[in-house]
Design brief:
Elements (H helix, E strand, L loop, with lengths): L1 H11 L15 H4 L10 E2 L14 H13 L1 H21 L5 E13 L12 E16 L4 H67 L5 H35 L9 H4 L11 E2 L3 H7 L1 H22 L4 E12 L11 E10 L6 H68 L5 H36 L18
Parallel strand pairs: 1-4
Antiparallel strand pairs: 2-3, 3-5, 5-6
Length: about 475
């Protein structure tokens, strides 16, 4: 009993070998406010979770929710999360004893010539046996506990990967929707420009017939009209391509384009200041940072698993069985047998393979630390870049709006002066060309501004917090 008490005390005092994981500290400069001058065009409030609702576009809201529920990339990430959770459950079961129940029946015959006993005769008999084998891994050096710790890290990384997939899908859905709306708006501007140029073309032809114009004037006006008209098919093709992409993002075949999205003619815009928070909130929110941190924790735990392989492994083994030639004798005490004892295994002194695996685990952990640091830097860089581009596009858009208003006014005045005979046709054509260019550039900037807003939301890393669980869509009934 004294020896058993000492053994139990030794097992209870055992500790896991290998390094204990500590989350890397965030540099103070990374946790503060963002530095780009573009922060003057956003607010310092907490970043929104369902950020797409800031666009106040019901069609976009529905498309994002649909994509979060049915997108195939999210379904893949969700399946992977279920897989690693099952692996964690399997690893936890290593703390429990292993058992193996068996039952056996044999019909045996021993021939007379199989023995060296003179006068022996052949014997034939039945043999019945039932048994239970059990084993238990004594986790003295923490190999099992470190394996569980690593599996928990894998689960956290898989959960973060699922959240990252949700962010990517929500951002891509919003971006493609904005593209579809933007191409529709640019196609509308091109059509209206072509119509205006057609009116000017008709006027120049009438002037030519009246002897007041030249063929060169007609050709120049025709070039403007056809250039505007030639852009319409390109914009329409890109709009349809975006609608096909939206269909697949929401888990549908390209033929099932969204009717409401097809009617959108103006890119969605966030009218107020976008809340961005600070660096500390960003790093806590971004799933890719959490994924890298959980992978680092898992790989650190695997160093402990590899370290434990340098030490002896102890298993407690036991078995009980009942065996008899007659099934009715199995319950008798003479049929009972058992065995009990520890099994100690150790690869000493040949530890070269175990040491090599330890070096591999340590190198993997060092790589994971570098990946974590790189992911933190990437997250901060992406937000600063998104702020810079968003700020620049805001200023560009404001200037283009002023330019478009001035071009419209100049074209109107040029038309009036030409009708009054105070300007030449060439001056009117120049004014029309400037107006067409200003309108087309503004339409392109409106689309770019919407995409810059989506890019900023994507960099901020929100959108997974209230995401619905992915579901399997039933096929449509015929």
């Amino acid at each position: 009993m004294k020896r058993l008490s000492l053994l139990a005390a030794g097992l209870l005092s055992a500790c896991a070998v290998g390094p204990n994981y500590e989350r890397p500290a965030t540099p103070p400069t990374a946790a503060g406010t963002f530095v780009d001058p573009g922060v003057t065009k956003v607010s310092t409030g907490a970043a929104e979770g369902e950020w797409w609702r800031l666009f106040r576009d019901p069609v976009l809201d529905r498309l994002v929710v649909d994509a979060l529920a049915h997108n195939t990339d999210i379904r893949v990430a969700a399946a992977n999360l279920r897989r690693v959770r099952s692996l964690l459950s399997e690893t936890r079961n290593q703390r429990l004893p292993t058992t193996d129940v068996s039952a056996r029946y044999n019909r045996q015959r021993s021939g007379a010539n199989t023995t060296n006993i003179p006068g022996a005769q052949s014997a034939e008999f039945d043999f019945f046996q039932v048994g239970l084998d059990a084993g238990y891994q004594v986790d003295i050096f923490g190999q099992v506990s470190r394996s569980i710790e690593a599996a928990r890290g894998d689960v956290g990384a898989a959960q973060a990967a699922l959240d990252a997939a949700r962010i990517a899908v929500a951002a891509e859905t919003a971006r493609v929707y904005a593209q579809a709306c933007g191409f529709a708006a640019q196609a509308t501007v091109a059509r209206e420009t072509a119509q205006l140029q057609d009116q000017t073309l008709g006027l120049t032809r009438r002037l030519l017939e009246a002897g007041r114009g030249t063929q060169r004037d007609v050709d120049q006006t025709l070039v403007l009209a056809e250039n505007a008209r030639s852009q319409v098919p390109q914009f329409e093709a890109e709009r349809r391509a975006a609608l096909y992409a939206l269909a697949t993002l929401t888990g549908r075949p390209p033929a099932e384009t969204d009717a409401a999205a097809a009617q959108c003619a103006t890119p969605p815009q966030v009218s107020g200041l976008i809340p961005v928070g600070d660096g500390a909130a960003l790093l806590a929110r971004r799933p890719d940072v959490r994924q890298a941190e959980r992978l680092l924790a898992a790989d650190t735990a695997r160093v402990g698993v590899a370290t434990a392989a340098l030490y002896p492994s102890i298993r407690l083994l036991g078995s009980v069985s009942l065996g008899a030639q007659d099934i009715g004798d199995l319950a008798k005490s003479d049929s009972f047998s058992f065995s009990l004892g520890p099994l100690i295994s150790w690869s000493f002194p040949n530890l070269g393979q175990a040491r090599a695996r330890l070096r591999q685990a340590e190198a993997t952990s060092e790589g994971s630390l570098a990946s974590f640091d790189g992911t933190v830097l990437t997250a901060l860089r992406e937000v600063e870049q998104a702020l810079a581009r968003y700020s620049g596009e805001i200023e560009r858009n404001v200037a283009l709006r002023r330019a478009e208003a001035a071009a419209n006014n100049a074209a109107r005045i040029a038309g009036l002066r030409f009708s009054a005979g105070r300007d030449t046709l060439l001056q009117r054509i120049d004014a029309e060309r400037d107006r067409a260019s200003a309108r087309a550039t503004l339409a392109q900037s409106n689309a770019a501004l919407a995409e810059a807003q989506v890019a900023l939301f994507n960099a901020l890393g929100g959108g997974w917090e209230a995401a619905p669980a992915p579901v399997r869509r039933e096929p449509a009934a015929n």
